[in-house]
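Protocol step 4 of 5: obtain the predicted structure for the target chain.
Materials: sequence only (see below). No template structures provided, no constraints applied. The aim of this step is simply to have a reference model before the mutagenesis design in step 5. Sequence pasted as it appears in the construct record:
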Amino acid sequence: MSAAPPVSPMYRPPGRPVDVRKILRRHRPFLGVAALALAGLVAIEAWGVAQFFPATQNAWLGALAILIALLGNGAAFLLPPRWVIPEKFPRPVGAFAQATAYGAVISLASFALIFFVLWLQAGWTLDAATLLLKDLYFYALVTVVLFHGLVYYVRQMHWLYEEFGGADSPLKPIAASGGIGLMIFVVTIVFLPLDLQTITNAPPDLRGVVGLFTYGRDLYLLTLALGAYAWHFRWVADH
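Step 4 output (structure tokens):
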């Protein structure tokens, strides 16, 4: 009797369609923690505004900015999967891309609103506008590229493994994850020293506050990036 032909690793038994909606709604605990962590980042920024521009006495606006960051990014992560209709797309990647785009737009709008709230807290000064524009633009990029981007990538990998048993080449996810890690490393070694130069350039009476703000903000950002990367790596490697 001849032996049965080997089963291809790309083979998926019929009658088991992949539930794209289920993939879209995964990882809610991580997304909730991510929204909370981004609100913490805005809290550091609001504290800095209160320290550098104390004469305005609008501390409640800092609390409002934190609330906007929490609710805005929470909505950006959790609501778009409910709005997307996967059946409209010939391939699930279209649904994943649409959910990511909706989420990115909500996050960007949230950070734009946070900018104006914190600028009002600082009394509409041009110095505050420069500080906030630089910081919040970078925070928005981190949110869109790292968080929304990694969620899109993990969803795509979920679908590939459930539909086909894996990527067409095992080197592709390795290369993608390695490239993400390299990007985090390069950004850290290039921008961190430049940012820390602000400590030495600050007036002597503000050097302690500037140092605490800069070190605290940068270490917090690095922790967020490493945490998001570890989360994505755990799910990709699990397959």
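Step 4 remarks: The chain has eight helices and no strands. The chain has one domain: 20-238.
Proceed to step 5.
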